[in-house]
Amino acid sequence: IDPTAHHDRVVLRRDGVYGYHLTVAADDMASGVTDVVRGADLPGSVPVQSAIYRALGAACPRYAHCPLVVASDGSKLAKSQHSLAIDAGDPAGVALGQALRLLRQAIPVDLDQIQPAELLGRAWRAWSPDRFQGLRTQPISGR
Question: Where are the beta strands (DSSP E) in the chain?
């Protein structure tokens, strides 16, 4: 991504509302965010937000972009589309395991015997963005 290729963005509208990129950067700075993981459809926001970080004298977080999980018709699964969320309370962690599989991550062989919190811990320690390198979308059957 070329950080000099971004276009001017509004950081404060005439009506006094702060712009998205400024508020995200300010919130991340206030929260001490060091790593940001987003969908593969959002790499264009990195140069804009990085410029804001630099203008405010702050260190930029590290960015990674995961493939989008899409329905069989190609539509993005998202809260805004009222897609079903992964139930972290699912004692078998089946949906969480499926999500990790879609992102080509390592899945424990004893998936059906571990609690979701432990699965998340294992997934965090074994997380490898290299496994989905070059993959922009990943279809899922059903919705």
Answer: 35-39, 62-66, 68-70, 137-139
Burial level of 93, CB count in 10 A (0-12/13-18/19+)? buried
Query: Which of the residues are catalytic?
Result: 79
**Model confidence over 89-135: pLDDT tens digits?**
666 667 788 888 888 888 877 777 788 788 888 888 888 888 888 88
C-alpha 142/C-alpha 100 separation (Å) is: 17
The distance between the two most distant Cα atoms of the chain, rounded to a whole number of Å, is 56
Question: What stretches of 71-142 adopt beta strand conformation (E)?
Answer: 137-139
pTM here?
0.66
Q: Which residues pair with 76 in a beta bridge?
A: 70
Helix, strand, coil percent values for the chain (each to nearest 5)? 40, 15, 50
How confident is the model over 16-43, as a mean pLDDT?
Answer: 89
**pLDDT tens-digit readout, 72-88:** 888 888 788 787 777 76
Check if the beta carbon of residue 85 is closer than 8 Å to that of residue 93: no
